Amino acid sequence: xxxxxxxxxxxxxxxxxxxxxxxxxxxxxxxxxxxxxxxxxxxxxx
Length: 46
Description:
Blueprint: E1 6-11, E2 17-26, E3 29-38
Antiparallel strand pairs: 1-2, 2-3
């Protein structure tokens, strides 16, 4: 199964806020699974 990992940034001015997530299905309902939340260092291991 291919999992697409998405990323988002919500602050550029600092402190930076970034997250990675994937779209999922829970009991047949669409959902978002948050993977990593933090600063720019989270992109090393999504």
